[in-house]
Amino acid sequence: MVDGLQLPRTSDGTPIVISVDAMGGDLGPAAVVAGLALSAAALPDVRFVLHGDEAQLKPLMARHPELAAHVALRHAARVVSMEDKPSQIMRHGQGTSMWGAIDSLRDGEAGAAVSCGNTGALMAVSMLRLRKLPGVNRPAIACLWPSRSPSGFNVMLDVGADVKADPKDLLQYAVMGASYARNGMATKRPRVGLLNVGTEEHKGRAELKEASDLLAAQAAAGDYDYLGFVEGSDIPSDRVDVIVTDGFTGNVALKTGEGTAKLISGIMREELGRGLLSRIGALFSMRSLNRLKLRMDPRRVNGGVFLGLNGVVVKSHGSADATGISAAISLAAQLATARFHERLAARVASAGSTTQNDTAIISGDQTGAQTGQGSDPTQ
Amino acid sequence: MVDGLQLPRTSDGTPIVISVDAMGGDLGPAAVVAGLALSAAALPDVRFVLHGDEAQLKPLMARHPELAAHVALRHAARVVSMEDKPSQIMRHGQGTSMWGAIDSLRDGEAGAAVSCGNTGALMAVSMLRLRKLPGVNRPAIACLWPSRSPSGFNVMLDVGADVKADPKDLLQYAVMGASYARNGMATKRPRVGLLNVGTEEHKGRAELKEASDLLAAQAAAGDYDYLGFVEGSDIPSDRVDVIVTDGFTGNVALKTGEGTAKLISGIMREELGRGLLSRIGALFSMRSLNRLKLRMDPRRVNGGVFLGLNGVVVKSHGSADATGISAAISLAAQLATARFHERLAARVASAGSTTQNDTAIISGDQTGAQTGQGSDPTQ
To answer: Do residue B44 and residue B108 come from a single domain?
Structure first.
């Protein structure tokens, strides 16, 4: 659960239901059930549909008897492994727990889905079963990045749904990322920046200049402030709330940030463990160091959100433990409660119809565009 | 100066001469002269040619009278500013201190050049005055990255010379980066990885698969071990010594790493300053925290090296202070002493001739290829 977000509550009495894929994570279904127990305790009004192998899940559920009233078990005999290729799962994935978790969303049984399985396969199954949101060409994965911004986090997308993005895709990422920042981070008017190798206008690839012009032109329709180009050093800063980039660059940046944080914490551990004085000092500083650890803990921000599909899918890190999985589940519940999906769809449709009317720059399925109202300031 | 490197010494009696651009850094010529004084004290056999405005430099030099025997002043009335466009400097840059510093190298007066000025302009002037090394299509900028590798640093290139790189360019980066790791870091047989969004063969852009095949085929000629794809999280790891990528991705990764390190150190400072116990603890841990700071200090690894030109140019960070500038000057002296430029040229020619004979994959000027011996294991 991201700090500062309201705990999800049913608004009109309709229960919030989250569909959870119990299988496919590095730590197995035990970690998922333990994470589910944490979320269920924190979110007593939310209900869950848990997909996976009953023979494994029943004994795990029995350890948490309080879950029985909150969780419906849905048997799935097969599991998507980390080695499975997305194309194979698209053809032969029916009957897996991942497929089942997405179908709960497709069938309207759940308001959001969570999985810590194979990212490529999850995106493939989500695309196949949920289909793309009308007006969206390439869906994206958005991550939260610890930052100096008031909310404590910045949004970056795409971090790996697709290795390519043309200027129109980058515009859609800006619109979707801004909507996510409003609904997931309560950032009223997100500041959007386009990732480049310098902030000057002439820097970078030609297509980024074109994208920058589009993002600037659509800032009003997308209800964001456009900052122009930002650099890698700005990603964790308080200059920006939403960083837009293609999935190749975003994925490299995300993993580089993770690797750098891991290097520093490893060296810090080594140095603080060296010598008696340092170890005494570390004892005195324990609370500070724990607060530092907490502020930088990647488990707190666990959950890449798939944007641009007909439904909200949260991808938990494959190696997530109970704390991390609970964070992903709580994020899904938060987004379901905020009716994020409908808001996002309306925003994309509204931005699509504006751009279509103005400059006809959005390609693809525009059937949803007519229905866009675009008047809800929290979209 | 990077730890573990030998201090430069004249080998056959020929003095090592380094050409230094005194102007154009954020802190002005005072920082450059102060850095020069540090390097001159550490490297008594090295001589320097200092380019810049005499009226400003003479009083600064007077503060370090010991420099008189080591430094020749070369007046340049004009300065390249951070705002100047590379294209303008290429046409009208003659008479600037940057141009003069590069011409010292071109004319054989110096063995390496250092500048902390405008990167784009420095690359443009270097390309124009030094010309590309025969066989090289795109020059690259290589940086050193604090890492878990035995040398304490990994090499990454390109970090911003060019936003594009095709598979043949990436192969040349691998050959040049491996040569730099051998000569700059004393890594006997560098492990080379190609940056991608996953380590599996099918991941990433199609051109990266092609580049990966080239890098694998040329590992023997380039005298490196090819690891295949690596991810952002591997950049600071001990899995790899040389990370190959295009200048767009490399620049974003470099700045993301810097931004992440800055965020963590800022939060650490805040947390350790909060509360009496923490402040007492920080006192006890002072030596450890200072060692941590030293190990992560970006000034220790200050100096992006331009590879693929007829001469060694070291780009110091624009905001470098005396310590940072001294590190860049000492790196230049180390590379000049190691005759890095000749070794690199021979290696590129040798790899070029191999690939040309085998598969004719290297395009561009091949006039240097015939002279390549490729038998020197330290190239």
So the answer is: yes
